Amino acid sequence: MAVIEAPFSHLFSLFAVAIFPFAHPLLKRFDRWATPVLAVVGVAVLLLETRHPLRRRTRPRSERWLRNLLLAAPSLPAMRLTLLPAVVGLAQLAAPHRPARLLAGLPGPLRTTAEVLLLDYLAYTWHRLLHSPLLWRLHRVHHSDLDMDLTTAWRFHFGEMLASIPYRAGLPALLGVRPATALAYEVVFEACTAMQHSNWRLPLAAERRLVPLLVTPRAHGIHHSMVRAETQSNFGVVLSLWDRLHRTLRLNVPQCDLTIGVPAYPDPADQTVARLLVLPLAPLEPWARPDGSVPERAPTTTSLLELAADGNC
């Protein structure tokens, strides 16, 4: 009888977490400490990018901030009300099954390390999937920003958040990642997303020491380039390790030579909130400007793995 009842009890737990997304103890704890931590990170990044800007702005900051915050208004609640409860609920549902017990035999610190590496690798692979034709419909809302700063880290279509649930919550649960580790990683994920999208000019020498381990603002800026080969690089979220392993790391582009955005949408008229909300329904455009020209970059002899100096801007 207990064997029959167990699946129903886990289904009930999943249902309860979905219906009461703030009631679970882990989610209460997350809200209690993650919110102030991420607020401090956000304020720090804002001050640093304001005081030490990396790239010149091409659009008025107030105009972009208002737009990006309006886009974040549905996407951030979508994450909190769906993705995070799914992390907890699906982990409880998967716990009794064999795949979810694969990591259970590891000693505590080793298991936590394995879980974090697995989560970050899944984030890398999910990001690559976002650049496939189907998911690019959603993700191009994020990439079409014509400048980059802290608010770009929040500029996601709410549909992208919802689409990520099976991959970012379901797969970790199936592979045995504990929900507490997944929620802690989510804080690191969000903090690193804020930092790497920022317009903060770290000292070049310091960033060259960081980039072998972490994704940095200069590295992620290249990922937002209008040059197709550069957009198809630097998919990592926290660790740059996965880009190195999969040969998708590209660091040799000066920041002053970057044009940020998607070539098909260079016009500020394409940047209204109304147009961005319905952009996933629009046909996929060729990777070219409206006049048909394709953004390109002249070949360089500098190694892809050498972080370039910024140039003159």
From TrEMBL:
GO terms for biological process: lipid biosynthetic process. GO terms for molecular function: iron ion binding; oxidoreductase activity. It is found in: Membrane. The chain crosses the membrane at residues 7-27, 33-48, 69-91. Keywords: Membrane, Transmembrane, Transmembrane helix. GO terms for cellular component: membrane. InterPro entries: Fatty_acid_hydroxylase, Sterol_Desaturase_Related. It comes from the Bacteria. Residues 116-248 form the Fatty acid hydroxylase domain. This is Fatty acid hydroxylase domain-containing protein. It comes from Hymenobacter nivis.
